[in-house]
Each structure stands twice: as structure tokens, then as C-alpha cells.
Amino acid sequence: MNAPRPGTPAADASQHLIGLHDMPAARMTALLDRAQYFAEGHDARQALAGIAICTLFFEPSTRTRLSFQLAAQRLGADVLNFDASTSSTSKGETALDTLRTIEAMGVRGFVVRHKEDGAVAALAAAAAPGTAVVNAGDGRSAHPTQGLLDMLTLRQAKGPDFSHLKVLVVGDVRHSRVARSDLHALRALGAGEIRVCGPKALLPDDGTLDGCAVSGDFDASLAGVDAVMMLRLQRERMEDGLVDSLEDYHRDYGLTVARLARAAPDAIVMHPGPMNRGVEITDEVADGPQSRVLRQVGNGVAVRMAVLEALLGAR
Amino acid sequence: MNAPRPGTPAADASQHLIGLHDMPAARMTALLDRAQYFAEGHDARQALAGIAICTLFFEPSTRTRLSFQLAAQRLGADVLNFDASTSSTSKGETALDTLRTIEAMGVRGFVVRHKEDGAVAALAAAAAPGTAVVNAGDGRSAHPTQGLLDMLTLRQAKGPDFSHLKVLVVGDVRHSRVARSDLHALRALGAGEIRVCGPKALLPDDGTLDGCAVSGDFDASLAGVDAVMMLRLQRERMEDGLVDSLEDYHRDYGLTVARLARAAPDAIVMHPGPMNRGVEITDEVADGPQSRVLRQVGNGVAVRMAVLEALLGAR
Amino acid sequence: MNAPRPGTPAADASQHLIGLHDMPAARMTALLDRAQYFAEGHDARQALAGIAICTLFFEPSTRTRLSFQLAAQRLGADVLNFDASTSSTSKGETALDTLRTIEAMGVRGFVVRHKEDGAVAALAAAAAPGTAVVNAGDGRSAHPTQGLLDMLTLRQAKGPDFSHLKVLVVGDVRHSRVARSDLHALRALGAGEIRVCGPKALLPDDGTLDGCAVSGDFDASLAGVDAVMMLRLQRERMEDGLVDSLEDYHRDYGLTVARLARAAPDAIVMHPGPMNRGVEITDEVADGPQSRVLRQVGNGVAVRMAVLEALLGAR
Questions:
Q1: Who has the most CB within 10 Å: A33, A81, A229, B297?
Q2: Does the pTM exceed 0.90?
Q3: ipTM of this predicted complex?
Q4: Structural domains in chain B?
């Protein structure tokens, strides 16, 4: 599902989904179209009948695992869960041995989460030709299905033409794989204006924000935007000394009803969850009429269905 | 599945199963009739085909979870397990956010266990209109499917007319959600005489025992009863200082073959499990001809099938 | 699946699979024939439709559990996982109560692992007539499906006639249930020569090696063999004082490319996994052309399908 490298046949290029940085807009749009079909309640119980898929999480995440599991079930696949954060790797087996072993059992698809950047890509590179690896989040690098589900949510609210949209991403972009995948997708789909806002210590300086309008002033950044994509503030940031206190963070970067009034009247609010209510977002906004947080969750299953079907279905 | 409140349409009233205190006898009987059909080995693999059910246990219980899982599988549902005692709520997410998130993924049924009284009812009250919540045990309040499976077991042994039955409930009624659900069900089905026996410190004084014949004398209470429902003695009761020792408890309230001889000759013995063998019940009784302990376990799956089908099947 | 005891009807004898010590060669061959069919990619999704199988692991092993789970799914069974190493037995319930309880829920097949020798056989002896118990490894005694999958792997490489084969088993035979099951199977199928090699402290003196050519000299033992079956070195052996260091062990009993050159040119290398790379086997050998390690893993699913189908399918 990565863009074809020169000289690489297209079929090989779409064996895995590692990130969105090199996915062509046409492929992204096709996945979103199919995801929209699934989001409307359609199943495809024969699509992956007889195919086994394993979730392989080296970093725990029940929500994301359940979402992929539901997606696989609605496609008729057999689903296995391997919690690598607690189980077999305690015997000293490497991640690659674990993947190859389960692959040798006949499992065709792997949904992998890992705390290290690039770990999922490395596993995918070593997988057998018939195996598909989907990145369910690696380090700070990428969380491509989250990026896609956010685009689906935006599209449902604002239509397929992103060229007039002003989108604001707020918070700890520096440590966020969600933000990186969102930014790649917004660029690919031609978003009109991408703004990024957060405390300087939480913004990356590595080219991630190229082409974005960057600011530390939340109130100013909100002016007239069509969508606000809030990020979760990890509590480790306090321990890292990057944020002084939750109170300070909330005062400067917490989304309240009063602040949201600066955005366009029909602006939508998104958050990848789980939310720190009272920190980066208030209850009123999280549960308010402009929130699309639960819609994002539902779209997550639909997007994962589209991805698994595209990678593992009959070709 | 709760009794209709005035002005509330019946369909809404039967959205959830929280407790048995307000379930009309007619509804209870209909569920038991359907459970009897399932107990005879029938499946209904199409009943919940395409419907996803999630077990959501904030307090661990492998036995009850497996029983619900088997019930859901025999109805053709997709089953997910969420062990909330270890996993995601560590990120600070509330129980309600967890339920709403999984609900947003398209899950239609939740089987919830929680250590706090009323927690399951609170979650049910906040669930979406199409969602069904089944209480798999909350605090000391209710364990309605256990109550129903106990009634099914009684009915199989003694027939559908409970008006001539003498039933004895023995042990730590004060801390037992099983006992509370059993007492509600026995009253609803018109049991002739309900006796309760246990040490004073383990009997409730809150109205739970209204209408029951209460005694601290186990030998006397057993005289002529048709069924003995033993309760599990939690070891915490020693730490609480409510019970002196397991030996003392066994001497006064342990069911032995000799004691059981005081009951009716065809009396049955029940226990919700897991049993403390040698404490509240001896091996000879637990494994003897009058024991219905394993029958109760089998009936548990049947009752849970009937409940899930009634709440989530085509209406 | 054990050999009939005198006076015992055959049907009863094949209720369980506990070990290979008493399995007739004809039955073993029939299972391997069927496993070969499954290894070629065939499913039998109706074979166990509607039948529930529970993995019941009192000692954790994710790999073996996943392999059985995949096998059961490809036979259409409902699969439940019970991690007895962490869950319910914490309430003091015995292993037998746990099995009987899940059996009473309608589960027909149990895949059991236990750290104590004979524990699985004891559970099987107490199971109900219609229940099948498969030993997924008990203590040092037996791991029969591993023995069968190793035979299937040998047969695929060397053909069905074992009478001319020289097979070498290397390592900690004393503590290995895998080795014991392999030796039983090799004898049953008439292997021409069985050699065993390892440090004296890790070889059993209890009759396990009767009829084998035993040596402490790895280089000499390798001469001309058709198959090398390496065993995993548990790190506990150092703590036990049975092995001085991993370096010493590797020097004396590690399989390297140079050493492997002493075997027959077309010799195959096997290992039950997970491998201690750099200890009992080098990367070059583990991933080399003579390695059948991943083939063994694939054969594991096929063998387990054959076993579950034989024990639980329509008779």
C-alpha cells in the first residue's frame, strides 16, 4: 500500500500498510470510498473467509486491538490475538522470530504495534511474499489507519474536496504518530490550509511541519478553522519536564466551549482518544454537538475493514 | 427486561437486564422456557449472526465470562473480551468512556461485571438506544443470570409450580449478589417457603430478608427442605473479623451428608461455585447424587443464551 | 488415542491423546496421512462445527496455544482460551474443578498444558465419557503433538520408510517432554538408528534412552545422520548447576555450519522452538537451507487438526 518504488511492481508495493507518507491520493481516496461503504453498515463476511489474521502488539492497546478485531470479524476472517507485551517474548524470542513462527502457522495478516520507530516496517520487510503487515502504530512515526479514519471523518462532515478546508492540529505533535499520519494524509488530499498549534517544547523541528502554519497561540490559531484535531497529552510529558502542569496546559491549550466559538460555526472537533477530560478538552466540548469523537471510533472499524480487504482479499 | 415504568413503552423497558427485583413473573417464565429449550442442546446459530457482543469485566471472573462467551457463540454472535481489570482503564479512561467507545465501534451487547453496586445500571442508563447491557454481577447487588439459572435448575428438579417448595439459602447472604437475585426470583415465582440461615454477622438487616424465615441454626433450618442453596464463603470475611475461622464456619454451617439427611429425601443441593470444599460444603455432598452444581453450570449457558437472544435478537 | 488396554473397547482408548508411548504405528500413520492432507492447505470447516474446544494452560505457552487455536478454527470449532496460569484458580479452585466446570458448560474438547508430570492424564481420567483431552505438554513427560509434527516433518523430507534413517537428538533430553515424545514416535515408526547426544548431566538414566546410541561427543554423533533434532536449552539449567555457561554449551553442543557438514549432505535440522540463537544453534543453521524449523511450525497446525478431528469428529 506504499507507493511503488521505481522498478518495483505495484502488487508488491501494496503488500503492506506502514505509513501514509508515500500513499498516492488516488489509492487513499479508493480506500476511503470503500470505508464509507462499510461505515454505512455493510459487511463483507465472505471477503476474508478462511484467512487468519493475528494482532501482534508489542505495546498494549486494547481499543485499537478491538477495532481491528471487529473489522476482521466483519470480513469473515479468523482472528488471533497475541499480546507480545506480556507473553512469549519473555522466552527471549525476537519479534521477527515471533512473526515468522506465526506466519509459518498459516496466518496471512498481521496487525502490529510497537513502541520503536521503524520496528513495524522492519518486520514487514522480512515477511514472506504472501503476508500482509498493517502498522497499528509504531513509536512516534506513524499510525496510518488513524490517519485514514480521521480523513473519513473529515470527508463525511465537509465533503470530498479538501481544498477550501482550514484544519488545525493541536498539542503534542512532537511525540505523536497520529499527528504525523494526519499531516501526511491532509497533504495528500490537498487540504487548503494546515495549521499546527502547541507549546514549543512539544512541536517537532525535523521537517514534520513543513508547509504548515505553526503557532503557540491557540486562540489565534482557532480563528475560522473548519476542523480542530486535538491530540492526547501523555502524562509522561510532565515527567520529561516538557510541560509544567496539567493546569497550565489546560489554560493554554485546552479546548473549551468559549475557545471553540472562534472556529467556524460548523467546525468539527476530533480526538484520537482516550481523552484526558479537563486537560486538553473539556467535557462540554468532548460531548458537545461539534464533537466527532465517537464517529471517529466507528469510522476506525470501517477504515480497517477497507485496509484488510485491500491487502488480503482476492486480487 | 426490567418491569415497565409508568409511561415507558415496553420495548424500552426490556433493553437491559440489570436485576430481577422488578422482572414480572411472566417474563421470567418465558425466559426459563426458552432456556430449557437451549439446555436440551439446541443451538440458534442465526439468532445473533453479525451482531457483536463484548464482555466488559471490571472485576475478573473467568468462569462467568466463558459461560457468556459460549452462549454468544451458540447464537452466532461475534464475541470480544475486554478485561477492564488490567487493560485500558489504566490510561485513566472512565468506565463510561470505555463502554461508549466500544459501542461506537458497532458493538450491540455488553456483558458487564463491576465491583461497585449500581455501576452496571449506571452504564446501562448512559448506553445508546440500540445497546443492550447485561449485568454479570455488580457489588453485592445483583447477579441476575445466576438467579435465573438457579430457578431453571430448581424447575428441572421440582417442576414449574414452586408454591409447595421449601427452599433454604445458607451462608453469607449479606455480601452475596447471588443470594439477592435468588431471593427476588424465588419470590417472583411464588416459592412456598423461603428460609435463610447463616451467622448473624453475615446476614443483612436492610430488608433483603423480608418474608423469609431467618435462623442461625443450620440443623433446624434444614428440616424438610426441598432445595439447599449454599453460598460461597469469601476468605475476606475472616480478615473482616466476621468469621472466626474456616473450622468454626464448617462446624456450624458446612453442609455434610449427615446434615443433608435432615432435608427432604429428594432435596437438591446447589452452589454457585467456585466451591470451598471442606468449608461450606464437603466433597461427599458436592459430588453426591443430590448435588446439582454441574447442572447449574450447564444451565448458566442456556439461560444466558435466552437472555442475549431476548435482548438482541430480531424484534 | 492410547493403545487399547486388555478388555477395554477401542472407542474408549481413543478418547484422549496423552502420550505416544502406547500409540500403535498404524494409528500414528493414519494421523500423519490426514495431517499431510491438511498441511497441503485443505480445511475441513464442517468437521467440528458447533463443537466447543477450550485451551486450558496451567503453564503459559502462546505459540502452542495459537497453533491449537488455528487448528480448531480451520475445523470450524468454537474456541475458548482459559489462561489458568493467571486466572480463576487464584480462587483456590482445583484443576479438576476447573475442567469439570467448563465441561459442564458444554465444552467437548480440552487442550491442556501443565507443569507437573501426569497432571494431564489425571484430568483425562476424570473427564466425562464424551470429553476429549489432548496433552499440550506435561512436565518432562510428553508433548505428543510435537512428536507427531516432528514425524510428519521427517516423513516429508525422507519418505514414509524410516528403516534406513539415522536420527540424532541433541541436548537436554533429561528435562525434555519433546525428546520423550520424539523417541516414542521414532521407535514406533521403526527408525533405523536413534542417536542421542548431550552433556551427561542433561541425559536421563531412567530407561528413556533404551536402544539409543548415546554419546557426549557431538561431532562424532553427527557423522552421517539424516536428521538432527536440536532441543532448547532452558536457562534454568545454569541456575541448577547442570550447565556451566552458555558459551561452554555452545562450544560443545551448538550446531554450526561446520559441524552440520559432518551429517549426510541432505540432512535436515529440526528444533521445537523457540530457539536460543547463538546457544544451541547458530543463525546460519537456523535460517539455512537444511533447516525445517518453520516447516515444523506449519506441520504443527496440520497435526493438531488431524488429532482434534480424530478425537472429536463424527464417529
A1: A229
A2: yes
A3: 0.92
A4: 10-143+298-312 (3.40.50.1370), 145-293 (3.40.50.1370)
